[in-house]
Amino acid sequence: MEVYTTENEQVDALRRFLIENGKALVVGIVLGIGALVGWRYWQNHQSEGAMSSSLAYQQASEALAKGDAAGVSAAETFSAENKNSYGVLSSLQLARYHADKGEFAQAETQLRTALTQTKDVDLQALTALRLARVQVQQGKADDALKTLDTITQAGWAAMVADVRGDALVSKGDNAAARAAYDKGVAANPPQALQALLRMKLNNLPG
């Protein structure tokens, strides 16, 4: 089941960048539906430690891609031992793996871990947005709304409104959901997200 419809390309591209370059990065990501809006980052000096972390991350990522218990365990160990950008990406990959299998409780655990691994506000916003989506999938609409309240940057307004509307629909509050979707449209998001929001508005009962 696809829970993530907006960020996978961005995270995959960032993962490839880290693997190919092997540099310690602090990353902020600004996302748009269906396309890469952009990301910002600055790099620290390259060191043997950074190269070692990059190699270990690549190995953990490849192990997880196999989809077996050993691979999942290797990725979980790497995530737990690395409180940095590599650890965040590993946690996000694990969350995506579990969500795709319908294991939303495990996905939530990994996303909560990811939130502790970075202080970058955009990467935290990305993680919180994914967490809110997973919480909606679990029927935890109130938890999802609280999670969304932690995302305060203006650049995320439309995406937050989209997930907020979904959470409110799941609660049966169609009037509040309509207000949320309207707010998302008013934020003038990229065309794909705007079309999605308008479709959801049109599908709401009068």
Automatic annotation (TrEMBL):
Domain Ancillary SecYEG translocon subunit/Cell division coordinator CpoB TPR: residue ranges: 15-205
Localization of this protein: Cell membrane
Lipid bilayer topology: Single-pass type II membrane protein
Keyword Signal recorded: no
Membrane-spanning ranges: 24-42
Keywords for the protein's UniProt record, in alphabetical order: Cell membrane, Chaperone, Membrane, Transmembrane, Transmembrane helix
InterPro entries registered for this protein in UniProt: SecYEG/CpoB_TPR (IPR018704), TPR-like_helical_dom_sf (IPR011990), YfgM (IPR026039)
A Pfam entry, by short name: TPR_21
Family according to the record: Belongs to the YfgM family.
Protein name in the entry: Ancillary SecYEG translocon subunit
